[in-house]
Design a protein that fits this description.
This protein is α+β, with helices and mostly antiparallel strands and 187 residues long. Helices cover 20% and strands 28% of the residues. It contains three helices and ten strands. The N and C termini lie far apart (86 Å).
């Protein structure tokens, strides 16, 4: 009778090892749960829709939907490592009372979930995310960082990144071989 011990290919062994490796991450999540603001900002980042296309000229065009965002609240920058960062903040309109910061939760007695009231304005449903957002896009090495253009129109931010012209292929350089008199004399 042969006794077989589980090895690296054994599924039970692999599952046990994975649980042991995941233990520090799980412990970190339990001891340091994410803050409510972090979760809100992560959702805002994930819910900022963006289309990216490459034109035949090699230019990259990013279109980011930002309805209700003031162009003054949008920031486009290139960070180290050729990473294009688009960030901003969507604020509650001032006529809702958000400018004064007078936000009062509903009385909680029989009201609908998510119902909020702000200085005379009663929200029955809030689906548009307010707060900060950010999207990052790594640019290729051929991107011309000096010619980046950003245009905001009808709630859509369009960022155009042109590419540097392709370098001319180097032609082989022909070197003329000189014949010296010393070479002919030796023969």
């Amino acid at each position: 009778m042969e006794l077989a011990l589980g090895g690296f290919g054994d599924p039970a062994f692999s599952a046990a090892m994975q649980q042991l490796l995941d233990l520090p991450d799980e412990l970190e999540r339990q001891l340091n749960p994410p803050t409510r603001a972090y979760v809100r900002d992560r959702r805002a980042i994930a819910n900022t829709p963006m289309d990216i296309k490459e034109l035949p000229s090699g230019a990259i065009v990013l279109a980011v939907d930002m309805p209700g965002v003031s162009p003054a609240d949008v920031k486009v920058q290139v960070e180290e490592g050729n990473v294009l960062t688009i960030s901003g903040e969507r604020k509650r309109p001032a006529e809702d009372g958000a400018a004064e910061g007078k936000q009062v939760a509903s009385d909680g007695g029989g009201g609908a979930a998510g119902e909020k009231q702000q200085q005379g304005v009663k929200y029955l449903r809030m689906e548009r995310r307010m707060g900060k957002f950010m999207r990052r896009f790594p640019l290729p090495e051929r991107a011309d960082l000096d010619s980046i253009k950003a245009e905001y129109k009808d709630g859509v931010l369009t960022v155009t990144v042109n590419s540097k012209p392709k370098p001319e292929p180097k032609k082989p350089r022909v070197v003329q071989v000189q014949i010296t008199n010393d070479e002919h004399q030796g023969k």
